[in-house]
Amino acid sequence: MALLRTQAVRVHEPGGPEALSVETIEVGDPGPGQVRMTHEAIGLNFIDTYHRSGLYEIELPATIGSEGAGIVEAVGPGVEGLAAGDRVAYGDALGAYAGARVIDAGRLVRLPDSIEAEIAAATMLKGLTAWYLLHRTHRVRAGETLLVHAAAGGVGSLLCQWARALGARVLGTAGSREKAERARAAGCDAVIRYRDEDVASRVSELTAGRGVDVAYDGVGASTFEASLASLAPFGLLASFGNASGPVPPVNLLSLRKKGVYLTRPSLGLHVAAPEDLRRGAHALFTALTDGTLEVLIGQRFRLEEARAAHESLETRLTVGSTVLLP
To answer: Which of 76, 78, 102, 280 has the smallest CB count inside 10 Å?
Structure first.
């Protein structure tokens, strides 16, 4: 097969959104165990900004992005279960910001006909994150009380909906009146406006002084202390993101007073095995098709507008999920 020329967004040196450059690249044939696919939609995630800025080190230059959906164009030797023309999606494979790419077949899942490519691209990484947080990091049970930061965001809104369906009471945080309304629509029983209210104090009021069983914190530095202070005795803080910057070193003695637990999970470990990826994707697709999860795509950008998309994400102007369209 001939080389395929396509547009891609690349990073050559770590930096801000200005570090993103739009280039034409050549995509070769798939090798053993690989697939060449064309993208119909690409997901935007905070981890993309970590790769761009150097917070998470990657080998440069690189095409960034970890989430996408599209069509299989060709399969390499040894690939089973996938063929040209199949609809596929993925949520944990660097190299998504391109019109086409080569990817390991084991990173792909087949996309049901009932799920549109934009929805898949908007939910694979975020939805699989919600899946492992609610079903693996802590198996949520009916009657538990949870705190979800950035409850109107891409991961947050899915967490709230899914947790509510599991029978949990969900307290969310949001920065504006509009986002608070969206968080309530996503299933929050109460929303704390963190710019106007002290989060830990408000959690104490809402739980009659007990605190929450689990705090899901994808924001990082600016919310970490409030998350810890909001936990009930023996509660769990799942710190899974760094939207406001990385959490500083933790004094373990600070956990002693209430005997709380702290974990820093990641999606990659939970879907490293293809069978775990398929298990999580099945749960996600079921939740999308049975109405448990409704996905808000709040923003759409052309692929070449990736710089503007990053600026919007990092300045908290986005609501729900964002997709890039090649």
So the answer is: 78
95 and 147 in a single domain? The answer is no
pLDDT digits (tens, 9 = 90+) for 135-164: 999 999 999 999 999 999 999 999 999 999
Domain assignment of residue 136, yes or no: no
Whether 248 and 311 share a structural domain:
no
135: in domain: no
Confidence of residue 3 (pLDDT cuts 50, 70, 90): confident
Q: Is residue 147 left, alpha or beta, with left meaning phi > 0 and alpha meaning psi from -120 to 50?
A: beta
Residues 6+ apart with CB under 8 A from 11: 19, 20, 21, 51, 52, 60, 61, 62, 64
**CATH classification of the domain holding 297:** 3.90.180.10
Tokens of 271: 């879907």
Q: Quick one: 38 and 111 in the same domain?
A: yes
Q: Are strands 212-217 and 231-239 parallel, antiparallel or unpaired?
A: parallel
Helix (H, G, I), strand (E, B) or coil at 187: coil
Local structure of residue 56 (DSSP, 8 states): S
Residues 111 and 157 in one domain: no
- How far apart are alpha carbons 298 and 324 in whole angstroms? 12
Rounded Cα distance, 63 and 73, in Å: 20
Q: Are 277 and 254 in contact (CB under 8 A)?
A: no
Residues paired with 289 in a beta bridge = none
> What's the average model confidence in pLDDT over 71-84?
97
Same domain, 187 and 288: no
CB 286 within 8 A of CB 265: no
- State how many domains the chain has: 2
- In the predicted structure, residue 1 carries a pLDDT above the cut 60: no
Q: How is 241-307 classified by DSSP, letter by letter? A: --TT-PPPP--GGGGTTTT-EEE---HHHHTSSHHHHHHHHHHHHHHHHTTS----EEEEEEGGGHH
7 forms bridges with which residues in the sheet? 24
| pTM (global) more than 0.70 | yes
Which range of residues forms the domain containing residue 164? 142-264
